[in-house]
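so my prof wants the structure for this chain in the tokens format not the other one, which i didnt know existed until like an hour ago. anyway here's the sequence
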Amino acid sequence: MEISPGIRRIGSGLANVYLFEEAGAVTIVDAGVPGYWRALPVELAAMGRSLEDVRAVVLTHAHTDHIGFAERIRAERGVPIRVHELDELRAKGQVPGPAGLGRFKLVPLLGFLLFGLRNGLLRPLPILEVSTFGDGATLDVPGTPRVIHVPGHTAGSAALHFARRDTICVGDAFVTLNVMTGTTGPQLFPNFNSDNEQAYASLARFEGVDARLVLAGHGDAWDRGLQEAVRLARERGTAPR
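here's what i got, hopefully its the right format
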């Protein structure tokens, strides 16, 4: 679906992939679940583009619901995969996934599990080759996003600021839908955070960043500005001791 001119989303909000088109070339942010591979050509065609136009997949972090089709597009199409240096081993399958579900409600949990089963979430392929980046880097990919390191969800969680699009992809640094509880609106995602207190502290990394459109890994787009989203996420989160 179209989010904004030149930006499309794969997924209904349970797990999101974003396509950014610039000058005929495409950057994919996150790779969702393996089953999204079927939807990718359709969304590219809606932009007037094809798999031939994809220049990079950039991961906000390397949880299994974000690496989805990354290895397939790398192996079959030669598209480079980029991830923060602290999530490199996780992307390669050498670090286990998060343990425990935390607080949940049965209906949203079952819905997410069913979604995962239908889309291959339990059979993710580790990424055999990745390129890494660090905090503050401006990536040489379509859209030239700037990296903001926001650890807590994972050690290498990163937001990607597409300044010319007035847009930021925050991954799961905070989300607009908790798929375990069904709660909507900007909020931290403690169910799968590696360090909840660090995730809360990392919200400070967004101070001074101007973006109208906020795209999270789970949930709908937020168009009331990054700073308002961060304020709400703080209100609903737990401050570090």
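also thought this was worth mentioning. DSSP finds seven helices and 13 strands in the chain.
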